[in-house]
Amino acid sequence: MKLALGLILVFLTAPLAARSPELMDNAGGGWSGNGGGLHQVNDNVWYLGAEPIRYCIKAKVDYPAPADELQAMVRRSFSSWQRFFTKYEMGRPQAMPSFMLTMPPQMTLTAREVRCDEKPELEFYFGLDNETLKLYREINEADGYGLALRTTYDHKQHRHQGFVWIPAFDQDVRKIEHMLLHELGHVFGMKHDTVFVMDRDIALLLKSLAAGDPALSFLTRIEADFWPFDLTAGSRMRLEPYTRRLPGAAPAFPLPACANGLLSLAEIPMEFHPAPPVITPPCVRMVLQKNHDNVENNFQVNLENAAGGWLATVYGKFQALQPGNEESMVPGTLSSWQNARPAPAPWVYVPYARRSMHAQLSGYFIRNQIRYPAKLSWSRGLNLEIFIPAQARWWSIRSFSS
Ligand SMILES: [Zn+2]
After folding, report:
1. Does 253 score more than 60 pLDDT?
2. How far, in Å, from the CA of 125 to the mean position of ligand 1?
3. What is the pLDDT of residues 271-286, one digit of tens each?
4. 161, 56 contact by CB (below 8 A)
5. Residue ranges per domain, the chain?
């Protein structure tokens, strides 16, 4: 009860401006928050330090998934995030300012289930509720498919009491697990729209999924082929022109029908067509490949035939447009870090990622000694724009999603 009371006071005294915009605009569900303080603090990683997160599971008797399945689901979700953070080298504090005496602790990536009477730090509520969760939803005038809610950020211990709430919004356990993975992402400080599972409109997605939707096969996964967190060296991503997905944007002439995943050559500017004597089929696959982190030829676009056979390659050279801008896309912790000096400790933001990612990149592709200016950015997937001088326009392509 003490906890609930603390939250009530925070809610009632926090000025509106201090709340995250995320908390104020939540018709679609899938929010997170702590109900007050500096709004950036809402996105802080909940658990730092070597001790595993002690969690327990509470579930309604007739919840769509039985208790043992929920246990397995929670374990899988923790493991998925562990693998994800390992893959992208996240979890360690970076950019320590010189006045901080010691390195801030690492993110806690391990977890251990305990009984609910063994003082868990994190409680999962499946189909159940408590006063704090109810109150939070009432005050925010929103209901949803899930919520991750913790107490006010503890700048000394960096450990928190928190709840993950997943109501019985659907009988499909895969949708429930996907929502759970999303909310756990908030516990680890992941931001909305950084990767497939952190879709800002996740409730809308889960509501509208129909048979045959490409997103269906990526349920319960953090990344989708068309929406990974980032490209690592060696990774490949299929591309499609932007315009073919816009309703009403009919091409000037009929395009030959191509199988799913293939593009008509007519959709690709002449400048990037395979050069003779390569025999070019009418339908091709376009793939963006990240080669390495060096600036020279760090990207390439390949045209392939339906079987994956090589047709043409255009090399590109890209670099970050606005270094530092990507910081907000990785987990981080804004804190007054009690080990810092001088007193009173200043507020410092510490990102928990080794590489910068999600940067906007600018550069060019080069073909026949002509440079084609290009831009690469992330927005619910990858967007690539290439300037075609002969047409005096930017050609927009994006990660393949259908
Ligand atoms: Zn969310």
Report:
1. no
2. 16
3. 999 988 878 888 999 9
4. no
5. 2-218, 236-321+360-399
